[in-house]
């Protein structure tokens, strides 16, 4: 036994020089506490590597080291706060969504997957670290969009005013060939009867009757014998009552009837030159939304939705009945879950993907968005001329982007003001502080 102890002691004595000469391994440390989360020194180091690499690639100068360090920490604090909000409202980015985001980055940089991996490694990051970085950024973006969107209020009058300005600018180089029917007030007919006649003509036009024939038969306007044809005109060349009614309508659009001091008017845009028309696909879909809670887990919500699918397929209940009874979206639930004809771009990404790809009449598998868990069924799709609404949508997007940037800035300031943030001193900092 004593011989064994001596052997162990001898071995330890032999190892002591090697142990004392081994280089110390620096441990990662907490630099900032942000609510229930932390920012580590390794997080700062990774962000610095990426920033310096990008600056070198773009030949961009960077500020002094202490200023740069402060800016990086500030950004990491805001990222952590937003990431916590994403977790709070249940944003999760699965691997499929992440793959799409990474692919978009590669395409945006005009790189193959291998080239992207090489450039990531050149920044001192592993590809796994890069993917998780992107997952976090996508989750932050979705949470910010969802939470800031709720704060934005755009009035219809604002959209109308902006759309009018855009249409005026667009129409400067547009030529219209306009047809006109004018029904005059007279002693033989009351104003109500004239209006009824105008409405009847519009109905006949919608059923396919020729505008020129009706103009010759009924119009009292100056071009009646020419079939109401005013020829080609720009808006500034038209009579004011024409110009006031024509915005961004496309070819074959019927406008009116509308009233002036002398009677009622109907316009037809026979043709257009120089106007970009917009045709879009609208989708009419219906859905059932289940929201999770402290009582109902994600798994429970999925199980409940799978149960609805089984009932619908078995004929035990209809989609509309289940939507009315169980959907957490009160607006659509009252309409049997129906959302009406909408362009898919109006929906959040996961919902947009479903309504764009599902065959008509097929019910989706349960899927999750920031609003909760859904099943959706596409009822119908249609192609429509949306030149007018496209202009309104463009006006809305301009106003939305302006207000979004303002509200996002205010939201982030409020996040930071209400957060617990504490800088953690390192041991070296404490020693320097004590010496001073």
Key features?
436 residues; alpha+beta; Triger factor/SurA peptide-binding fold; Chitinase A, domain 3; 3 domains; four-stranded antiparallel β-sheet; 16 helices; 11 strands; elongated; disordered N terminus; disordered C terminus
Task: Walk me through the structure.
Pfam families: Rotamase (PF00639), SurA_N (PF09312). Residues 1-22 form the signal peptide. Residues 173-271, 280-380 form the PpiC domain. The chain has 436 residues and is of the alpha+beta class. The protein folds into three domains: 30-149, Porin chaperone SurA, peptide-binding domain (Triger factor/SurA peptide-binding fold, Orthogonal Bundle), CATH 1.10.4030; 171-273, Chitinase A, domain 3; 279-388, Chitinase A, domain 3, CATH 3.10.50.40. It is 53% helix and 18% strand. The protein is built from 16 helices and eleven strands. The strands form three sheets. Strands 4-3-6-5 form a four-stranded antiparallel β-sheet, covered by helices on one side. A four-stranded antiparallel β-sheet has the order 8-7-10-9. It starts with a helix and ends with a helix. The relative contact order is 0.10. Mean pLDDT is 85; it is low at 1-23 and 431-436.
Short description:
This protein has 436 residues and is of the alpha+beta class. The chain contains 16 helices and eleven strands.
